[in-house]
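We emphasize that the prediction below concerns an isolated chain of 422 residues; any contacts that depend on oligomerization or on bound cofactors are therefore not represented. The input was used exactly as deposited, without trimming of termini.
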Amino acid sequence: MFQRSESTLEVPQSQSVLLLHKIRQPYQLASGHPVPSVQSDDELLVKILAVGLNPIDWKAPDFNFGIPTLPYVSGRECAGLVVQAPTSTNQSRRIRKGDVVIIPSTDYRDLRKATFQEYAITSSVNTIRLPRSLTPESGSTFGVAFVASALALGICMGVNFEEIQDGPDILSIVRSIDPDLLPSDVRNECLHGIQQEERAHSGDFLVIWGGSSTCAHTAKQLARLAGLKIISVVDHTKHGLRLSNHADIRPDLLVDSHDPERAIQIIRSATEGRARFGFDTAGKETAGHLLQGLSSAGKPVSLPQDLDAYGSVKSDFPTPPSTPSNSTKSAAQRAHLVGLTGLPKGEIPEGVALHSVPIKLFHEIPEVGEALSAWAEQLLASGLVKPPDVVGTVDGLGEINDGLDRLRRREISGGRLVARIS
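Result of the prediction step, given as a token string:
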């Protein structure tokens, strides 16, 4: 466990930082870089203790996207020690100097907030206090997955979290805000992506393709708390046993992704064509497969009743509870597919709505950021939601390139690789 001391709260004049000077080049370690400074009374300065390494950290420079300027500082999440607290009276009541916090750095255009450095700036509304029961390494794997999962479920699928640890109804929050304040590129998603009568409720099916990812890890926990029935489509050989034995993320039905057509048939048959919600965490191709498994994308097909997802004797699938009369589903309801990293191209079946996660709501709309951050604290403190597993570590900023190479080679699965910084 990290030990706080007065010396760890002192801020130096300069810091070390990883810089990307050219596309498709390794990050370069540089010393003597200025420590970022706060620019408003709701911001705080964090001494970074651990950084969670994400696929975007190597894909962005390799494929030249999400790099607004060069040289660039990357890194999307961390856990750190608050060395300069916000001066805003309201915010300083929740976040104080000496707190260990989780920072989901979704604002990739502000290099002060990047995590491949020793110190970073964040807004108080985007800061999650880490319970003492969790290590900084564990906390550094949680932030981005939580934000993406909560927004995918809460905005794109309309899940209401109000009955879970006083959680937020994110869709209602967003739709109560002046539409002109919403970012223009996600405004339509926020206001018209899903109709009130289409919102997901307890007992609905949620199919997650790529169910072994860290985002799926968190999404399954949130969805289960909301009463959804989870179908997880994964490489059974690689991930099946781990997911089946993992109490926190065990799905209601585990389907092998090896044969996509077979997986589609299983989803349709097991749900009797009633799966309306899909979440793809892998890419455009698998999102296209998932599209075919949703209720409005095709007629249900019959599978031999004595077979399960792996050709074995079929066990009983949990029967969803009856839906309350005030949320009765109509024939006109659409299916909803959320793509985390891409959406299928070409002809889309009638009755299916495609969604991209409006991740920027977290840092651009304070009401959303504060609601999600405060709720995350409650979920972690109560143990209702647990961070993804730490499956490997590297030491210091200088070893992050080696860690990203391991991600490129697909050597990391079932959790997150973490860089220990302090």
